[in-house]
Each structure stands twice: as C-alpha cells, then as structure tokens.
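S.,

Sequence below, as promised.
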Amino acid sequence: MSIPKCMPARCVIAVAASAGGLKALSVILGGLPKDFPAAIAIVMHLSPERRSILAEILDIRSHLVGGQAGSYG
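The prediction came back faster than expected:
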C-alpha cells in the first residue's frame, strides 16, 4: 500500500464501523506500519452495558499504539 506524505499534526483519518466491524478494523489497522504518519479516529457502536475491550484487541492486532476516548452524554 502506498502511504501519502502528510504532516502528523494535520492528518486525521476517521473510520466508522458498526458493532460487527471488528474484523474489518483489524485488517485495516493490521496493515499499517508502526510509524503511520496520521492519527486515526475510530467510531464504533458499543454496548453501554459493559466495558469495551476494543482498544486492547486492536493493540494486539496492529502495530499502532492506541487507546479509548471517554464517553460523553
């Protein structure tokens, strides 16, 4: 995959997925290098009834370092 040049502070890629999108997110993020030059924001439907482990799963399945944003509302 060819990665375009960008300034990290200015490049943000947003990805949205439904609750069944974990496999697709794993494939997309797993193919990116550790030094990917942009921030990636993932928006995904999650159950409010339990704690999400999405960030931990994606940390295992990709070379990127990530975390989960807080919940507002």
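The helical segments are 22-30, 54-61.

Coffee later?
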